[in-house]
Amino acid sequence: xxxxxxxxxxxxxxxxTMAGGALAMAPVLASANSTDTTALEKAAQQFLQSLDNxxxxxxVASWAANPTIFFxxxxxxxxxxxxxxxxxxxxxxxxxxRTKAEGPPYLKLKPNNLKVERFGDxxxxxxxxxxxxSVGGLSGKMGRRTVLFVLENREWKVAxxxxxxxxx
Length: 168
What we know:
With 168 residues, this protein is an alpha+beta fold. The protein has one domain: Nuclear Transport Factor 2, Chain: A (Roll), CATH 3.10.450.50. β7 and β8 form a beta hairpin. The chain is globular and about 45 Å long.
């Protein structure tokens, strides 16, 4: 299938639109249907886009009230708890990436095998990232990502991110 057609279908399915060559984002409000994954997929795409572009404000706004994360970095092997600790670690990462890469997008994330599952007020997004760039210190490795979203005030927010890498 043509990549432009695939992209257009994905954007239509997730509710994203193109505006002057850039993705336009609207608030990601959940529907009343507990099996509908449209808003969840849109929230995941917005989260990934803000990370890829190192767009701080939307990135920080994507997180739940009390999130946790496992980073894929050797220098952060423990679970990181809470917004302030997560923001501090990501702020360092964003600053490091900006000095080494041109962008946006900076990370050039290309999620593969994206799977979206909804379980009432929780949603699970899993995917892989092939051939990670050297920017994040993970060159040549395959990234594995699991993102747990929860509904907070009718919006999908990231409650937990588990990021690991495999391969050499």
